[in-house]
Amino acid sequence: MVAKLAGRLVAASNEPNRPYRITILNSPAVNAFALPGGYLYVTRGLLALANDKAELAAVLSHEMAHVTARHALARARAQQKNQLMSKVMDNMVGKTSKTASIKAKNLVTLASFSQVQELEADKEGIGTTFRAGLDPFAASRFLATMGKYAQFLTGQADNDPKANFLSSHPTTPQRINTAIYTARRFGGPDVGDREREDYLAAIDGMLFGDAPDEGFVRERSYIHPHLRIRFTLPKGYRLENTSKAVLAVAKDGTAMRFDGVSVSPDVPLTRYLTSGWVSGLLTGSIREQTINGQPAVIAAAKAKGWTFRIAVIRVQSATYRFVFATTQPNAAYESAVTETINSFQTLSFQQAQAFKPLTIKINTVGWGDTLQSLAKQMQGTTDKVELFSILNDIKEGSQVKRGQMVKQIIAQQ
C-alpha cells in the first residue's frame, strides 16, 4: 500500500522520474524523514496514527519535497558555515561574551533556516498530494493529530514559540495555519479523496506500540516478557519506553529512569554503586536489602538542586537500575520511590507468555456503539477515551457514526 501510494505521488511530483527507496521502520515513534539519494523512512507508529491515504500522502510528499529541493545539502552547507565561523571567532578573539553572543545568533539563524525548509516542504508536499488526486487539507489534519498525540504522551502542548526558537521545526500551530492556507488555494474541504477505508484495511492487524523484544508499557506498568521482569509506578506517572531506557514523569516534575547495565556477577552491588557513576552520592544512605527475592542496594544522592533515589537490583547475571529525581522532595516522592522499587519482580515463563503485544483492530461502528463503549474495549492505556479519540481523529464533543470504521487497540490474539 505504501509503495503504491509513493509511486502515485512521485508521478505527481516535480521530478516524476526520480527513484525512491522506502523503508518502514519497526518503531512506535511517530516519525518520517528523507536522506539524499531518494531514501524515505516512515515508522509504523506514524502509519498507526494516520487515518487515511491522504494523510500518509501528505507525509510522504513532504519528505519527497525535501529530496527534490536538496534541503539536506543546503542544511549541511549552512552547518559547515556556522561551524567555520565559530572556529574563526574562537581563534581570533577567544571565548568572550561577545563571541558567545555571535554564536547564539548563528544558532538562531540556522534554526530559522531549517524552519523555513520545513514550511517549504509542507507547501510543496500539499501541492503534490492534490495533484495525485488526494485531499490537500490532509496535511493540516494530520499535523493537528500529531500535536494531540504528542501532548497525550508528554503532557505538554507544542505551542510555545519561546520553546521552539532553536528548534529545526516550526511550532505545530504555525505549521497547521500554513498548511490550511496552502490547501485553500486548491479549493474547498472536499476537493480531493481521502481513501480512508482502503487505508484502514491495510493497517488492520498491524503491531501498535512497543515490540516484544523491547518490553511493553501497559498503563502504569513496564513488562519485558523476554527478560521476564516487571514493575509498576503509582498513579500520576506517565511511562515511555525508549531504546535506551524506560522513562517516566509525574505532573510535579518528578522523573524516573530504569535501565540495565553490564556488571560482572562477581562485583558486589555496593561496590558498583560507589564506583563513581552517581554524583553527590550520600554514602551514609546506602543499605543492602532484598526486593521480592532479588538482592538490591538502595541509596540517596544530592547534586545541583536535585534529590535522587537510586536502586540497583540483580537478577541472576543481569543488573537493573532505578533512578528517581526531583527538585521538591516530600513524603509523596518517597512513597512513589518505595512503591515502584518494591513492585519490581521476576516473572515465570507462563506469566511472561501471557503478555501479548498490542495490535490495531479495525471495527465498524454498529447499533448502540458509542465512543465511550468502543474506547472501553481498548487495552494498554488508562486514558482510553482520549487515545481512542486521537487515533480516530474524533473532535471533542463529537460521537462515532453507525457504519464508520474505527481503530481500536487490543492485545494480539
TrEMBL record:
Cofactor note: Binds 1 zinc ion per subunit.
Keyword Cell membrane in annotation: no
Example GO molecular function: metal ion binding
Keyword Zinc-finger attributed: no
Pfam families according to UniProt: Peptidase_M48 (PF01435)
Domain Peptidase M48: 6-179
Family: Belongs to the peptidase M48 family.
PANTHER family on file: METALLOENDOPEPTIDASE OMA1 (PTHR22726), METALLOENDOPEPTIDASE OMA1, MITOCHONDRIAL (PTHR22726:SF1)
UniProt-recorded name of the protein: Metalloprotease
